[in-house]
Amino acid sequence: MTGLLDPSLRVPPVPVDTADTCPLPSALAEPARTVADDLDDVRRSAQRLLSSVDRRPSALRIRAGEVLVELEWTDEQPPAPQHAALSGLTVPQAAPAVVVAAEAASGGAAAVAAVAAAPAPAANGFDVCASTVGTFYRSPEPGTAPFVTEGDHVRRGQQVAIIEVMKLMIPVEAEHDGRVVAVHVTDGTSVEYGDRLLTIAPATGH
Amino acid sequence: MTGLLDPSLRVPPVPVDTADTCPLPSALAEPARTVADDLDDVRRSAQRLLSSVDRRPSALRIRAGEVLVELEWTDEQPPAPQHAALSGLTVPQAAPAVVVAAEAASGGAAAVAAVAAAPAPAANGFDVCASTVGTFYRSPEPGTAPFVTEGDHVRRGQQVAIIEVMKLMIPVEAEHDGRVVAVHVTDGTSVEYGDRLLTIAPATGH
Amino acid sequence: MFTTVLIANRGEIALRVARTCRELGLRVVAVYSTEDRDAPVVRMADEAVCIGPGPARASYLNMSAILEAARRTGADAVHPGYGFLSEVPDFAEACESLGITFVGPPAPVIEQLGDKAAARAAMAAAGLPMLPGSDGPVGCPDAAARLAGEIGYPVIVKAVAGGGGRGMQVVTEPSDLVRQFREVRSAAQSLFGDDRLYLERYLPAARHVEVQILCDQYGDGVYLGLRDCSAQRRRQKIIEETPAPGLPDDLVRRMGEAALRGALAAGYVGAGTFEFLVDGDGGFHFMEVNCRIQVEHPVTELTHGVDLVREQLLVAAGERLGLRQDGLQARGAAIECRVNAEDPARGFVPSPGRITELRLPAGPFVRVDTDAYSGGRVSPAYDPLLAKVVVWGPDRPQALERMRRALGEFHAAGPGLATNRDFLLAVLDHPRFIAGTHDTSLVTAITDSRARGLTEEASIG
Amino acid sequence: MFTTVLIANRGEIALRVARTCRELGLRVVAVYSTEDRDAPVVRMADEAVCIGPGPARASYLNMSAILEAARRTGADAVHPGYGFLSEVPDFAEACESLGITFVGPPAPVIEQLGDKAAARAAMAAAGLPMLPGSDGPVGCPDAAARLAGEIGYPVIVKAVAGGGGRGMQVVTEPSDLVRQFREVRSAAQSLFGDDRLYLERYLPAARHVEVQILCDQYGDGVYLGLRDCSAQRRRQKIIEETPAPGLPDDLVRRMGEAALRGALAAGYVGAGTFEFLVDGDGGFHFMEVNCRIQVEHPVTELTHGVDLVREQLLVAAGERLGLRQDGLQARGAAIECRVNAEDPARGFVPSPGRITELRLPAGPFVRVDTDAYSGGRVSPAYDPLLAKVVVWGPDRPQALERMRRALGEFHAAGPGLATNRDFLLAVLDHPRFIAGTHDTSLVTAITDSRARGLTEEASIG
After folding, report:
1. pTM of the complete model
2. Distance from CA of A16 to the nearest CA of B (A)
3. Number of Cβ within a 10 Å radius of residue B36
4. What is the spatial distance between Cα B104 and Cα B91, in angstroms, rounded to a whole number?
């Protein structure tokens, strides 16, 4: 279904069924013009629309017969909210759009969950996440200097923090060479499994 | 749930049950304009819309045939049933027919059924539907000639059949002048409220 | 025994009746209006017939359509549920005349007990305690005024054909009587097509306590405890419970026996409810009889372990009552809350519409009777009852805790949809309700104080 | 009393425990793996902590993560539910050492009763009837062979650390004993890290009947009737009911008293289950003790009108048992069916995945314990239990009818999702189950005959 979009848009495919593969030709039927023309127009319009939104949507859908445009944004957090939003999207029942919305959301569920489980590289680097619930410490001992601070260069495997869980000190290590661009948790606060601790920008040259 | 913004779009309230809203002529059916033009208008409108909202929506949906625009915002806490509301919208195979069916589990069923309830004028004419549950008779008495047969011309108000309900004889009358193009129920069979009985094609000249 | 039951109703009660029919191995025929074609009972039924458009007059009150539906589906029994045709003698009679078993009392019994004045006379004759009032209808305003004088004010003027809180007026000022008598009379005429009125002493602060009875066709009957329905808004019950808190056992027994005596005297058959007023001194006074299954029947089911609809069906089929009074034992306490699609913030106006989210309570000793579902609708055409949340507990305090928990889990949302959930919680949390010392004035007191609260806020803001 | 309960579990039991905590006014802390972040209990809890990734080893079996979660949320009690850490002595001990109340028996009791050989010895000492078998672990295959000869074949070789149907092997042929003994031993080693085994006479056709007991910290205890769990597939219970059909009252009493005697002898505290085998001659034999709330506890709750989790919590808080044996009265019959996300047509392989449609049964005397919802998923990471459908009836036949009706209403659909619903219905409809004369061999008989049926079809086609 996203087939009608130019791959260069790199929109994550809206999951599964193609219930909405509304016959585009008929929808756009107009003697003079070819389907290709229409597809071009659609693609250009879509590209402009996308370039005008700062945050990449998780789904875009355009339809030309009685024009229909859909954008959907997905949060990193639990997938439910989008479901929520979209479940409300029950409108003119003739519109396959409803179905698409449905797919986008329900399909999105799995997708998003997966993402959240294994945080993707942040735009500006790699996130180091908590491997366990516990208390986050930036330095080996109270009062001593932190393992790393913003701007420091680190090597893969280098210890950058500690998580204490039930008196057990678990070292947090950098998973890539690079530069520490952000420390997201303050010293001594407690973290859950998967919480973002630091962000490391790949070393230049890599 | 539907936050409406750009007033120039004159968006109608989201219908509670859009099933029986008969298709109005498309707002975009002007031969002169190309799909591209329409897409441009829509895109510009969408961009204005998005730039005018402070909180980033989780979904945008625009539709131009009998204009409909929807923005969705995601709540913090995801209640499960929102999944539920959605679940019904997920099944679909290919055909819009199935799409509607797919809606059944959630709100959509209302749609499908209600269509049957208030039959839109059939492509080839107007349907005469049962005003009550009962037994359908084509002729005034057993063995006598039917009130009408396919091809007959009828005038508005002319009796075309009988429905018997608990020994009560309820006349069925034509609602328009025209020609009987189909009788859908065989003599003596029992019908429910809303069942399609006959189809009458508008008299030529109308 | 009959084999196919047509359920001449809609909503949660249609579904609830269908479930018991299934368990008895009976075929189920659902009838529905175009508004209800997606109702779960339609999907669950073995056969379903569309009997008309949304307005009840043209569908659920449309006798000929329903009887035609019974004929075409071969239904040999009709369960009327509550409301609609459940207490219409003509319908019961029409069913019987067609050889269809009507699941309810015989038509003449419905007729007699449906006539409030006649019922009052019959129950007085059966020795049930009455509030002072008129014997039968009162002809003219002047006679009413005289009688009211003897009865003593406040009095309540009631339409003979009335019921369900409609067609009645409390008169506190003798000078108002004639005017208000005339008003109620014309109201009664337009509401019920019957302008006959009768008078009764009015008790401003009394408890609404009712007795569930069950009688077979052979003169045997039992009573299944008391239900306290004092939590009412505008005479509409919103919270019901059993047992009636704080009533001494011997009063319970006396009320139960009185109700049963009245039922047997009237030749009652099936499940029925005798409504009484209980005054501050522990005196009880007959109000009226409901010749049908009651909305609040589940609380009795939970404490007594009896499926009342099953009993209705078996008795209607001519079976002897399986229950014996000494065999009946109530356990613990049960409470029902009626969650309505209405907006307390806007004078409880119904708020029908699409349900986009629905989360129902569940878990130990929680029962929810509803036919609402996510993606469905609350139709503007009918009563806005969204769900009956019913809980059981070994005692009243635990049942209350459970109800708070259950209502806390209840979540319904949709465009324009509002519910009285939080209002119900507020009533549950009221000291008088917690103490079980509340009467029919409680809910009004709460709404009034809230109204004041709002105006104060307004004046502050 | 403690004020905040951390629920160290997931799925329906986490939700069920949370509900009772709410009713007791206790704060609820949920812990969850990344697989369960949308679980209803996470939403319902006052606080929720993500303790690890999907695999239980890294989350629900991760003691330090769970204890850390308790520390950071200020939880002063932990309810372990069933499975996972519920019967791990170290966990119970760790909780207590941190001043956190563990809702279950003391660590040493869990340890003793968790060691099947030690439990057998202790219960024999307490005078519970035993099947002939080894006193304590059996060292070598030859000793086992000798002992088996004395016991008489068939014998069952069981891992001391086993349980839940794993780590055991029936031996019918003396010649097989040595080999199979070795096999079970290595299996036990790899499964439980403990290769000690013991022997017992094996009863091919016996009923699995268990006793629910409840003890406080002061040596008082009660038993709450029997549950028959004979409907098992591969030693996994699929249908449970109470009372145990057809067992004479005096046997019920003797079994209950035996279980209670054993519990008090072991210093048991909290809710527990004593599992017995009942042979054809009405003899009963001790099998094992489960030191936790049982999956099938709801049937006991419905007949006894007792919230077992509530009792667990109160007893753990040091309160005296409010129940007295002579005050306990069971009413009617209750049945539970475990609806699993598994495909009977493909050897009951689990069928996890997204749930796109879910319609749960409801109505009078039906209870469904589940945390599944439309739009949710059945995670491949855990047990495929989808829902527990539980019904109550005044007698067993009515309960059966109700269960058929309820399962008929059950509908779950999703890509690749299958359930054992129809298989459960087939078991309910089996003449031996209807008669209540079935034993642990019933389900195997049904699956075998079905398998034969399939192959026949195959050979025909």
Report:
1. 0.81
2. 10
3. 17
4. 10
